[in-house]
Amino acid sequence: MKRNVFSAVAALLTCITAALFPDGLVAKTHKQAVAVRPGIEVLESMGFSCLKGKKVGLVTNPSGVDRNMRSTVDILFNAPGVELVALYGPEHGVRGNVYAGGKVSDTVDPATGLPVYSLYGATRKPTQAMLEGIDVMVYDIQDVGVRSYTFISTLGLVMEACSEMGIEVVVLDRPNPLGGNKVEGPYVKPGFFSFVSQYEIPYIYGLTVGELALMINSRGLNRGQLGDRKPSRCRLTVIPMEGWRRDMLYKDTGLSWVLPSPNIPSDEAALCYPAAGLCGELYGFMNIGIGYTLPFQVFGAEWIDAEKLKETLDSYRLPGVAFRTIYFTPFSGSSKGKLVKGVQYFFTDYEAASVTEVQFHVMQAVAHLYPDRGAFEVANGVGLFDKVCGSDYVRKTFGKRYRVSDILEYWRKDAESFRQISKKYYLYK
């Protein structure tokens, strides 16, 4: 009898929940997970046909794995008919043993005995000596979909070097954790191209790394900073994923997240990276969770009144974004061992959110509450901020009054045109 009553109550609650929450109780950030096969798994299912009988180089890091956590290094090293002869380490190294900004050195991979050449340090573009004897270069790294993330810059320089030596490039595609529809931010202006803004693309570009490779190769490698040089192109093959769609966030893929760099330990951190990363370049202004357990997911400082900051940000009614107060003590960095007060933010509807604009609203709120603590006045240098923004326009214009409305037109001006331009390179619907 009790079991029947409980069953009836449970059924009633299910009906009520379905009526009140037709999309479910989970915030609108992802759909039900499905199985996506990354490029390395598709390549293996093809019998490595495009690599057989060739001497192979590989650019990768710990994120280059299949769903069973087998490294692409080990898969190619043991693949029948494939001769893997050299490895190339981007920022953080092939095995991920170098922290952010640390120099990656030439070495030998202990697991395979292969030479490892550094592409983050004195040499960022492979030299002719590094590429000697290579027939095809494979690239397999998890991207985060943001222009300032250095792995795509490494990819472009590798493609350029390979084009000069007639070496084919094979990109093993992986999901864009931000999905394939989100595009935000302006293009890079002449004079501001750098290793953190290497391409004439928006800050969030809405392409997989394979699609981006197709685009920059088609338009000419390093377009925008060539001067009098003719744009170069390489022989490029992209091994697409199976099962990925443009409306997917990483949680939808069914794949486990393997951190591509130390401060992106989760796919949640990847979602938040473009919402706080620009602000994070203003050293000495605010703590964005680096040195704590929530990288790129908080905004705080020792002098902040957390409740007032939340109240001010709530008053902006930002679509798809919610804030809560937070108090934490970083275990590293300039605020190590000190109480930091501020807000943690959440995307309640990622599609509706203007992701990159969150940090500008935080800077506006801080300037309103603390007029003597403007972001650019407090920060210890602004050069890298300009580089990742792609110009000094944002700093110079926004810094006059700290009003987001002053830069919105500029910040949004290129997104729609790029969305139309980039469609021709789509590999997925």
Q: What would you say this structure looks like, in words?
A:
The structure is a single chain. The chain is α/β, with parallel strands linked by helices and 429 residues long. It has 14 helices and ten strands. It has helices at 2-20, 39-45, 72-77, 128-131, 150-165, 209-219, 267-280, 306-315, 358-369, 375-378, 383-389, 393-401, 408-412, 415-422, and strands spanning 55-60, 83-89, 107-108, 115-118, 136-140, 168-172, 236-239, 298-301, 321-328, 340-347. The strands form two sheets. The chain has a seven-stranded mixed β-sheet with strand order 3-4-2-1-5-6-7. The protein has a three-stranded antiparallel β-sheet with strand order 8-10-9, covered by helices on one side. Helix 3 (72-77) links the parallel strand 1 (55-60) and strand 2. Helix 5 (150-165) packs across helix 6 (209-219) and helix 8 packs across helix 9. The radius of gyration is 23 Å and the shape is globular. The termini are far apart.
